[in-house]
Specification:
Length: 303
């Protein structure tokens, strides 16, 4: 964790004049130093702009409710894009409960630093960053206030060598607090948010707040995914309703946002996550995998 909290060598030294020459746009906000902006602030903003302009699409996975399977959706969304031949990064900003390393079998992996830049963990071409990689003990509690969390999230975007990406998928913790706000403000021009809910009214009520959150930040909403809609029998494949169904679709229609579809409860999803393999990799031919592949089509079609 110390590697995250401390300034990297790149932060301690001044950026070169060409730190943000990755594009030729004369209208780039990082071209000129703003009034009242210190030299260090200017250099950090240029470095962030240089990083972001190499990422074509930025997508935030949000939910106003915990326990809806948001990280599962984020992992399999990133994996689906990766399997489709895209260059993908997966950023886990759930500071207090980073689960991505466990779900991808990356527990115990360490983040390396080269030339003052943090190197993401590489999973067969999928680039992954999570606070979980910086914890000495997976049982360690992260007790941070807002400014510390905001600083680390910015560092994960600005000081990680993401390289050229087609997609950066950001897995945010539940709610509309510091972490989602910091991500959206740092990314600035994100393509939009994928909102995850479950069918019950009690979940949908909280998730509606995520939609309001996006609207207040002018963050486009790519669509709502209703997770855990029915149970897939592992023996016969029959789908049985467990919760009251349709809550996610009704909420999306009521709030005038796209509904991407529903994902059933599938024991194989839990089994894959617990064993550290993305579900779409292990069970690519399953009914549920086909459903997830359909859900990502609007994301794949982004211009």
């Amino acid at each position: 964790m110390n590697a995250v909290q401390q300034e990297t060598p790149q932060q301690e030294q001044a950026c070169s004049p060409t730190a943000c020459d990755s594009c030729s746009s004369g209208s780039c906000s990082a071209t000129d130093q703003q009034q009242g902006e210190s030299q260090q602030q200017f250099e950090e903003r240029r470095r962030l702009a240089s990083r972001l302009c190499r990422i074509k699409h930025k997508i935030v996975v949000l939910s106003g409710k915990g326990g809806v399977g948001k990280s599962t959706i984020a992992v399999n969304l990133a994996m689906a894009l990766h399997l489709a031949g895209k260059k993908v990064g997966l950023l886990d900003v759930d500071i207090h409960g980073p689960s991505i390393p466990t779900m991808l079998g990356l527990e115990g992996r360490q983040i390396m630093e080269e030339n003052g830049e943090l190197q993401p963990v590489d999973l067969n071409g999928l680039k992954v960053i999570s606070l979980g990689f910086f914890l000495k003990d997976q049982d360690e509690a992260v007790i941070w206030r807002g400014p510390m969390k905001t600083g680390v999230i910015t560092q994960f975007i600005r000081d990680v060598e993401w390289g050229d990406l087609d997609y950066l998928i950001v897995d945010s913790p539940p709610g509309t607090g510091d972490e989602p706000l910091s991500v959206c403000q740092t990314l600035e021009d994100a393509d939009g948010a994928v909102i995850v809910t479950t069918p019950q009214k009690v979940a949908a009520v909280d998730v509606r707040k995520s939609i309001s959150f996006c609207r207040q930040l002018n963050l486009p909403i790519l669509g709502v995914i209703e997770n855990m809609n029915g149970f897939v029998c592992p023996k016969c494949g029959e789908l049985t309703a467990v919760f009251q169904s349709g809550g996610g679709k009704m909420m999306a229609e009521d709030m005038a946002v796209p509904f991407l579809g529903s994902v059933p409860i599938d024991p194989q999803i839990a089994e894959a996550g617990d064993s550290g393999v993305a579900f779409l990799q292990r069970y690519a031919d399953s009914l549920t995998a086909g459903i997830i592949q359909e859900l990502i089509k609007p994301v794949l079609s982004l211009p």
